Structure formats: C-alpha cells, structure tokens
Amino acid sequence: MGVDSLEGHDVESERWVALTGSLGLNGVFEGGLKPRGMFSAIATDFTPDYERVCMTQSYVIIGDGIAGSSAAETLREEAPEADVTVITDEGEALYNRILIKEFAKGKLPEAPISIHDESWYDDRDIELELNTLVTNIDPDGHTVSTHDGETYEYDKLLIATGGTPTQLPVENSDADGVHHFWTFQDARNIREHIEEADTATIVGAGLLGIDLAAICGAQEVDGNYLMRGDSWWRYALDQEGADIMHDAMRERGVTPVFQSGVDHFETDDDGHVTTTVDPNGEEFDSDFVGIAIGLDFNLELLQNFEIEMDDGVVVDKYMRTSAEDIFAAGDLTRYYDVILGEHAQNGSWGSAKEQGTIAAKNMIDPETDEFRWVSSYSITHFDFPFLSFGHPTLGEDSVSKKYSETEWRRLAIKDGKIVGGVLIGDLAPQSGYKQLMREETFVGDQKEALLKEKFSADDIAATQEQ
Ligand SMILES: Cc1cc2nc3c(=O)[nH]c(=O)nc-3n(C[C@H](O)[C@H](O)[C@H](O)COP(=O)(O)OP(=O)(O)OC[C@H]3O[C@@H](n4cnc5c(N)ncnc54)[C@H](O)[C@@H]3O)c2cc1C
C-alpha cells in the first residue's frame, strides 16, 4: 500500500482493551512496562468521547534532534494531558547541530550551542531518557524497548532518528585522527585534534565537507580538499559558481584537489593517520582527516516489521509511515513533497523542525496539517553569503549566471517550475524565487527575467500579464 493512500486509523478502542488488560490492582502497571499511556481514570461509560475524557494518550519519540524535540514541544502545547517521552542515545539534550561547526572552528564556546537543558523537559512534564538506545519496536504490541531492558508503551510513535555519517570503505579509515562529523561530541573531538594538527585532508564535496574545510581554515591548518570530479558540489553548481567557492577555499588555506579521492590512509606505529593516498597514487600529509561523504539513515529499528522504505522511511504528507500509529520526521524521511508532486528527501534543520511539528499535529489529530515547505541551507564561512534552497540537484533544466567575482546564481527547473536553487553573494532574490516555487508558478518561458540582477517575483507576474 502506498502511504499517500493511507487513511487515518482509529484503533483506540482496541488499544483501550489491550491496555486495561495489563493494569494490575489499583491501576498499577505490571509486567515490567514503563507506565506510559496510563489512564487518568478507569472508563465505565464508552461514550464516543471516552478517549478524550478518560484516556491519557501516550506519545513516544525516538530521537532528540530538532525533529524529535520540536515534535515533543508541539505535543505538549497541543495535548497538555498527554504523556510525552523522548528517548535519545546521546548524552545531552537538544543542541544546535548547525552551530557545532562554529564550536569546532574555535569561534564559539559550548554554552550557546545547547538549546534545551534537562530542566526544559522537566518544566513541560516531558520525560527525557538520555543515553538510551532504542533497540526494538513492536508495532503489534505498541511498545519500544531499549538497550537497558526497559519497555515503553505508546499509542503513537515518532521515529526521528536521523542518520550516521557514511564511513569511507578504505583501509585505515577508522584510524586515530580520521573524523566524521555529526554530533557535538564529534565537534569536540575535531576541535581538540585540529588545534594540534599542522596538515589536514578533507574528503566529501558537499555542504558538510565544506564545513570541515572551513574549520581547517579557521584553525589555520593547511588543508587539501580531495574531490572526485572537477568541482565542489557539482550536482548543484556549474563550473563558474564552483570556482567562486574554490577561490574562497584557497583564500582560507585549503587547496581543492580535483579528480582525486581516497585509495587508503597510512598510519604511524601508534595507529594515528599520517598520510592520505589518493587513487592516482598521490600522497597528502594528513595529521587530521575529515570525511563527509554522506549520511546513512538510522533505519535499523525498522528492519523487523513491514514498513515502506526507499532509501529512507517513506511518509505521506502528514508524516505517517505505512505502519499503523507510527510517524517519522526529519532527515531520515522520504516525504511526499506537495510542491514537487513526488516523494523527496531533504537534510536541513528547518525542514526537520517543521516535519517534527507537522507529525505531532497529525499524531494528535489525524490529517490536521500537511507538510508544505521550501527549505533553506546557508553557509557563512566566507566573505560572501551562500544559500541553497529547495531541491537544487533536481530538475531537467536550469538557468545560471555569474554577476561578479563573488556573485552567482543558479535555478533548478522541473516541468517549467522552480524546484530549487543556489545563490552566492547576493541573497536578496531568494524570497522571490521561493515565492514562485511555493506558488508553483510556471516560469519555463521566462528564463531571462529570472536572472535579472535585482530580481523580484513581480518581474515574472508582470511579464505573464503582458
Ligand atoms: C556539522 C553540521 C552542520 C550542519 N549545518 C546545517 C546548516 O547550516 N543548515 C541546515 O539547514 N542544516 C544543517 N545541518 C543539517 C541539520 O543539522 C540536520 O538536517 C538536522 O539536524 C536533522 O535533524 P533530525 O532531528 O532529523 O536528526 P538528528 O539531528 O540526526 O537527530 C537524530 C537523533 O536521534 C538519535 N538516535 C538515532 N538512533 C537512535 C536510537 N535507536 N535510539 C535513540 N536515539 C537514537 C541520534 O543520536 C540523534 O540524536 C548540519 C548538520 C551537521 C552535522
């Protein structure tokens, strides 16, 4: 069954019977289950409204990243009586993943990176389980269990487990001094190490790779940035746009190396990386190595039961998976993009936050709100601003133009409509482009107008009216 066709399921009366069956004397839960989803009163009158009156809904969220945390916040705001539990394997509550690069650069201390401390959850009566890995989901029993043997019951479950950086499958990629970048703890390790390093190698020509390159620049460590093709982020930028980025890297002391990559790493006797050897046999001194070649979504929990997956967990526009009472939000979803008219993926903070919020609303009240979003991802490492929005690597057509040595733009077009883009230097036109994308305006015949230096959405409307 495709998830787009999922209907709202109302199985609460079955859950009611199942749950009351596990209540012991005096309403105390038995059987080693954590008492989530307890009832605030025992129902004797099964009026249609019994759920709202007599029953406390129980929501369990796996993951306390921005998707999970924003879902918890929305659940608490919109369902004040509900039991809300957030389980995370990390040792700290929500922090700003976007800012950990600034910490690694040495530009920010730890404190401002944190978003919520534990009291934030206490104040809202949200149960937060830190250092707790969920190891199993039982969709029939409506329970999840954790590495320490605890079991939590849920009425509705949210999977917001994000991803884990992809490991480079080459010799010595697990050596000391080879870093991947996702968590605050990764950032601490990177900062500690790069402050001691003289040489660095970066691998992965995308948005996280350039963060690692910028960290080298900020820490004044000479770096080589190895890329497989002829340019950085070649699926979203053309050569002119990429060259602006290459020059900016060089200015920061990081040299882009094209048609390269990693064949293997060499280490010293202590197992610390010393050298990166690329497939051409070229050697690069590497006290420090940073790898950002992609994200493996944390989907292990979903392997043991039937749920639609397609390089991510498939959800509909309400963030429902194909498994009953299980929702998903954040980086790991393949969501139905109502603007694009097809399923898509997006790894960005704003998108994950909105997905968490939308999921929560639909967990409380089915089909209340759909996910409709144009994402943005900006970079502030250089003297000029950089922004990508929407799906800049999609579309069968594109327009692009260079305006100056640090100003350039490209728009990705699908079926005559803007589906994403990248702006370097001048970000002012972004609002017009996003508006056209949001409104699904046909612009296929107005490429010249789209590239006007001081572009606004009115330029397109005016042209269409002629
Ligand atoms: C260095 C860096 C810089 C970035 N910069 C930007 C930027 O400038 N702009 C932007 O828009 N986006 C940026 N991003 C991407 C953005 O941070 C992510 O898209 C967003 O954080 C995804 O949120 P999420 O909640 O989906 O997943 P995550 O933040 O990955 O959260 C998932 C959580 O679930 C936990 N978890 C996983 N499995 C389990 C389990 N079995 N049991 C319990 N817990 C589990 C994980 O440990 C993690 O805490 C950046 C990311 C990084 C790493």
Give a short summary of the structure.
This protein has 466 residues and is α/β, with parallel strands linked by helices. It has 12 helices and 27 strands. A hairpin with a 5-residue loop joins strand 14 and strand 15.
Written description of the protein model:
The protein has 466 residues and is of the alpha/beta class. It is built from 12 helices and 27 strands. The chain has helices at residues 12-20, 50-54, 66-78, 100-105, 118-123, 184-194, 207-218, 239-251, 349-364, 430-438, 447-450, 457-465, and strands spanning 33-34, 58-62, 83-87, 126-129, 134-138, 143-146, 151-153, 156-159, 163-165, 178-180, 199-203, 222-226, 254-257, 264-267, 273-277, 283-285, 288-291, 295-297, 313-314, 326-328, 333-337, 342-344, 376-379, 386-390, 397-404, 407-414, 417-424. The strands form 7 sheets. It has a 5-stranded parallel β-sheet. Strands 10-17-11-12-13 form a 5-stranded parallel β-sheet. The protein has a 5-stranded antiparallel β-sheet with strand order 23-24-27-26-25, with helices on both faces. Helix 3 (66-78) packs parallel to helix 9. The longest helix has 16 residues, at 349-364. The structure holds flavin-adenine dinucleotide (FAD).
